[in-house]
Design a protein that fits this description.
The chain is about 20% helix and about 40% strand. The protein is α+β, with helices and mostly antiparallel strands and about 270 residues long. The protein has one domain.
């Protein structure tokens, strides 16, 4: 009698299964060798792009703020960069009109002046802003906005038309040759903490004669992570006396990969 297998009895032997497993393993190993480097390259490229984007965003934010810095207010202490952030400025009235009209800013009366007219466009002002005139920076008595007393800044109170009223009468120590004033919103500090791997931005704290590292009070926010190294530098360019130069060096590291960015920002220093 002939022994025939029914369809339900069809299958494979153990040897056949082992051979299939071995061949599949060889195929998978060969494929893995060929695709390993492209996959690693993809992840490396993605990581570099992410690090470069973080560094570029941080540098752009810092340089954008620096362009609004009060002239001669930039100062660096180690890994701390500080300056006074302005919202605008304008020109104060120094002389009355031919008809004797106009609110002139008085620099001679001992009691000072509590209001003055703006010539031309009126800047945007808000509660807490301060008006600064002829800032020359540290070392210039009466012309240093960081100075605790006898400084060149006064608190803003109100605006009516083109007339700015201060919260109290102020005798500004020096007149501006260009009859200019600046509106300061807040002090700003950037801290580069390589040990903690972060860059932080501080604002809304008090203006201090001595640079605080870090400043107390106010608010702060995280600007960048994965920071492995950084440095701030400042050259006031005293011979030119028009633009100072802030240098920013920033290194970010992830998984052994480091991206380094260097940038310069020109800061207008004409008071």
């Amino acid at each position: 009698m002939t022994n025939r297998r029914t369809p339900s009895q069809c299958g494979f032997t153990l040897v056949e299964a082992v051979v299939v497993i071995l061949i599949s393993g060889i195929v998978f190993a060969v494929v893995a060798i060929f695709i390993q480097k492209p996959v690693e390259g993809y992840f490396d490229t993605t990581r570099r792009a992410a690090l470069a984007d973080i560094a570029d965003t941080a540098v752009r934010r810092i340089t954008r703020d620096l362009r609004l810095a009060l002239p001669n207010s930039v100062r660096v202490n180690g890994n701390y960069l500080e300056f006074l952030l302005t919202t605008g400025g304008g020109r104060y009235r120094a002389e009355q009109t031919s008809g004797g009209a106009g609110n002139v800013l008085d620099f001679t009366t001992p009691g000072g002046d509590a209001s003055f007219d703006v010539i031309g466009p009126v800047p945007t002002l808000a509660a807490g802003n301060q008006v600064v005139i002829f800032n020359l920076g540290p070392g210039f008595a009466g012309a240093d906005a960081y100075q605790a007393a006898g400084n060149n800044r006064a608190s803003y109170q109100s605006l009516a038309g083109s007339t700015i009223t201060l919260s109290a009468a102020k005798l500004f120590p020096w007149q501006s040759p260009g009859k200019r004033f600046h509106v300061v919103e807040t002090a700003v500090t950037y801290q580069c903490d390589a040990a903690g791997g972060v860059i932080r931005r501080y604002w809304g704290y008090g203006i201090n004669a001595v640079q605080a590292t870090p400043p107390g009070g106010g608010s702060n926010a995280l600007l960048a992570t994965s920071v492995s190294g950084c440095a701030f530098g400042y050259n006031p360019n005293e011979l030119n006396q028009r633009y100072g130069i802030v240098t920013i060096q920033l290194a970010l590291t992830q998984a052994g990969e480091t991206v380094t960015v260097q940038a310069q920002a020109h800061v207008p220093n004409v008071p």
